[in-house]
Amino acid sequence: MPLTPSTTKIPSPPASHLLEKLADFRLRGRKALAVLLDPDDFEPARLRALLQLARQHPIDFFLVGGSLVLTEHQAALIAL
């Protein structure tokens, strides 16, 4: 039986996707807005307020990271 090419596209790693988007924005002369979310400075109420604002004023990228990233804080942040 001959092998047929798969039509399933393998998703790009997040960093690769981010670089592609940034390159596309640059080519089109479009600016982007990114917000850094620090899991170590995480308060659910503040994040919910930020997400409400993001619905009114779209944010292109949410970046998650900080100087100390504790796994339980990062997971809780991403869950919201």
What portion of the residues fall into strands of 2 or more residues?
Answer: 5-15%
Strands, total number: 2
Order of helices and strands: HEHEH
Largest sheet, spatial ordering of strands: 1-2
Report the structural category: mainly alpha
**What would you call the shape?**
globular
Largest sheet: 2 strands, parallel
Cα-based radius of gyration, to the nearest Å: 17 Å
Terminus-to-terminus distance = 47 Å
Helical content stands at 40-55%
How many separate helices?
A: 3
Spans of at least 5 consecutive residues whose pLDDT stays below 50 are 1-6
Describe this structure in words.
- With 80 residues, this protein is mainly α.
- It has a domain at 33-79.
- The chain is 46% helix and 10% strand.
- It is built from three helices and two strands, in the order αβαβα.
- It has helices at 14-28, 44-56, 71-79; strands at residues 34-37, 61-64.
- A two-stranded parallel ribbon has the order 1-2.
- Strand 1 (34-37), helix 2 (44-56) and strand 2 form a beta-alpha-beta unit.
- The chain is globular.
- The termini are far apart.
- Residues 1-6 have low confidence and may be disordered.
Main attributes of the structure:
80 residues, 10% strand, mainly alpha, 3 helices, two-stranded parallel ribbon, 46% helix, disordered N terminus, single chain
In short:
The protein has helices spanning 14-28, 44-56, 71-79; strands at residues 34-37, 61-64. The chain has 80 residues and is mainly α.
Question: Helices and strands in order, then pairings?
Answer:
Elements: H1 14-28, E1 34-37, H2 44-56, E2 61-64, H3 71-79
Parallel strand pairs: 1-2
